[in-house]
Amino acid sequence: MWPRLSGIRGFAVFVGGLCAAVLACGSAGATELTVVLDNPVDGVTVVIGQETVVSSTVTSEAGLTHAVLTVDGTVIRSDTPSEWSPDSYRFTQSWVPRRKGRVILSVVAFDQFGNSSDPVSIELRVVSKDAAASDNNLDQRATKASTPYVTGSYTNNTTLAAGDTGLVTSYCPAETTIVGGGFATDDDVVFYAQIKVGNGWLGYAWNTGIESHLITSYAVCLSNAPHASTTLVVGEAVIAGGEKGKAVATCPVGTIVTGGGYNAYPASDLRPYISRKDYTAEAWESWAHNLTGSPLTHQAYAVCLSGLGGSIRQAEVVSPLVPPDVSRLATPSCNPGEVLTSGGFGAEDDVRVRNSSGPWEIANNEWRVYARNSSSTTNRSFWGYAICATLGIFADGFESGNTTAWSSSVP
Questions:
Q1: Which residue, of 56, 129, 174, 207, has the fewest CB within 10 Å?
Q2: Second CATH level (architecture) for the domain 150-391
Q3: pLDDT tens-place string over residues 11-55
Q4: Residue ranges covered by each domain of the chain
């Protein structure tokens, strides 16, 4: 999608009228106000009588009040955020076309000072259902499920006594799909295993401290994708005594990696310090340090998504050098239009990762990694990773039951 900000005859005149009719476009406190319209994309074909979902992410320095959807200069609807005056909000607005031909669809947003954004506009082609059935170039991304793909986290926790090992499992609700997971705990606790189990996420942990600590498991669940499913793939490697090494789990052809984990058992002998997507393949890699003098087997787990198609991008944030005995937070995030499916971490020696979890923030696009430098003398760094998916769409918008996946690059 590319926004058409000019060259649409009559639209500038309409916006001026809209400001007067809906909310005066004041100039008080001029602030940045932007709209990213990512569904539908410019130039797609939609069908008379079928709902078209319009999704846009709006940001404002002054707080948002509402967004207005128009078609050919006519106001279709005006929607307000579900919370008071947020700085960022994702609007989902629907429209049902009633006539054939080409139309201009536009979104304008407003802040609490009365400022309006530049209009973001796309052109759509409206056809009859019969014409759509015979149109080989029809892009049905605009008529997908009435709600965009979203992820959310579901948690479960338990208390782990000093010196004990234990597990905690969180589960995704029915009609959602597990795509990844994470954990949260205290500095004294080591999560030595993270793994998908059924439609949930399990963590094994060891409390190395002298007090009881809470351990929490996060399951990241994908909604509005009834045809999606995930499988677990295992990869392993033997790490020599005293050495560091990695295990890699590779997803099958035709699937994409949305998350992953590891098994670094026994906890006192193998110390996991990197868990992330492989840089060059649809795979998950896990690094561990063998603290013994004998070879040990380390496992990596990949969560592989099928039924949707699409692509994965890994966002990375490197923490500044962390002074001794200081904690820091790294917050990698996904772009508007991407779906955060999981995250990962990496840490130098002496850094204890106590939290790797998400999604967070209003748009559910942020992964958080919280860690402490346990060294008493040396500055250290750590990394946070967010797994960001651009998901394909099923061609199921027309009651045909067709479950052939459409790539996000369909023309």
A1: 174
A2: Sandwich (2.60)
A3: 333 333 333 333 333 334 456 788 988 778 777 788 888 878 888
A4: 11-143, 150-391
CATH class of the region 11-143: mainly beta
Residue keyed to tokens 């750590």: 382
| Structure tokens that stand for 332 in this block | 């990698």
Length of the chain: 411
- Residue bearing tokens 């969180």: 170
Domains 11-143 and 150-391 share a fold: no
Which of the residue ranges 86-95, 138-147, 245-254 would you say has the lowest mean pLDDT? 138-147
Angle, alpha carbons 119-336-71 (nearest 5°)? 30
Q: Report how far residue 61's alpha carbon sits from residue 68's, in angstroms, rounded to the nearest whole number.
A: 18
Contact indicator for 284, 256 with CB cutoff of 8 Å = no
In 3D space, the residue among 261, 246, 159 whose CA is nearest the CA of residue 202 turns out to be: 261
Eight-state DSSP code of residue 20: H
Judged by average pLDDT, the poorest of 135-144, 148-157, 233-242, 279-288 is: 135-144
